[in-house]
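Question:
When you can, review this sequence-structure pair and walk me through the tokens.
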Amino acid sequence: MSTTTELNLKTDLFIDGAFVPSSSGRRFSTVNPATGETLAEVSEAAPEDLDRAVAAARRAFETGPWASMKPRQRGRILTRAADLLVSRADAFGRIETLDNGKPIFEAAKIDMPAAAECLAYFGESADKLTGDTFPPRTDALLMTLREPVGVVGAITPWNFPLLQAMWKIAPALALGNTVVLKPASATPLTALLFAELLAEAGLPPGAFQVLPGPGSVLGHSMAEHPGIDKISFTGETQTGKSILRAAAGTLKRVSLELGGKSPNVVFADADLDAAAKGAINAIFYGKGELCSAGSRLLVEESVHDALMERVVDRARKMSPGDPLDHKTRLGSLVSEKQRDVVARYVERGEKEGARLVAGGRRAAVNGRGAFFEATVFDGVAPDMTIAREEIFGPVLATLTFRDEADAVAVGNATIYGLAAAVWSRDIKKALRAAKALKAGTVWINAYNLYDPGLPFGGYKESGFGRERGRYALEEYSQVKSVWVDLT
């Protein structure tokens, strides 16, 4: 069993540059889902603590050293922090694996380097967002300024605890905003550790706070709080809608990255070996606890059998394993509660007539843990529950289509629009399909590939606003028009 004493972690709230107990003194447990053992007792923030955190963030934004710092100075702090994170990727990855259950290979070798790359990208972008000047007039100079929004409230999920937080923290800080972060209650540890790292890199007090606590209380309070100028939320769609309603009272800016039921479309002329490998990565990376997971595999009828033979063979070889084993590729789900949710969806799929061709059962490693087998359904109809609702687990629903038009129609038959993929050797067909699919990201002959400069966000009920790239810089800034009279 690993504890925070062994890991040398601080588990109080982080406010105004210091770790402090919550006003109520209450704490909650964060659990290693692979073993069921308690990792830490973490301070639980209350609305009173939120007031303290927002006040500190406001001071840092209005009058603190962060407010007067030049963009390149801010950028140097963030790039220094990125270098520190790279050097500690294994330690951060281990903590994230213990807290989330994901394989250490993913956490330490993929997620942490990606988080550091994001931080470095925005550190280097700190002085790159500029205003405009307008066609010259003899009587005036017209221009726009880009200014930070102010105090940003970031509410992040448990599936990629530090990486998803970084998509919000890095651009917000780069532009001179201050941040109050509420990490998911299930996975708060790397956010608290990152607060220490930012302070070590030179971030002044008040620029960044971390408030672990229940989303139902703290998240709602953040959305309502008049001292917070913007909310950036990643999570489940219904929760996003409640955040939006709560934020309406103060008309604060909101960006939402919500759920998905992403179609992964394989045409008959695709490289079937590559498509099968891609389909496995699309749904089983991150244990399927991925908002952009390729949870609907759409296969052209003529190659259905050939592709499914490859997919099922690969799925059956993916055995749940100890997340701390570097060879493991399918770790523990984040909690027993989430495993039970997945199990109910599998039962519903069978009841509605889908064919279970791989997995479908709860699993254990060394007799314990919230594990679930890599699961594949075939013969899924578009109106079945497992084809419509986000499961957030390692469950693949396979559907067929007749032709290009049918593929697009089936792919778009969802309330979501976060991501999609197209597999074809015909680039014209692939591009036509990519344009027709209503999704914020479409991969062609690939899946789950990301770059910090490429925007990410959804259509429809997958939310609005964009993370990453210059689009994220726009999300965390506002435009001021300036008219200079020359007469």
About this structure: The longest strand covers residues 140-148.
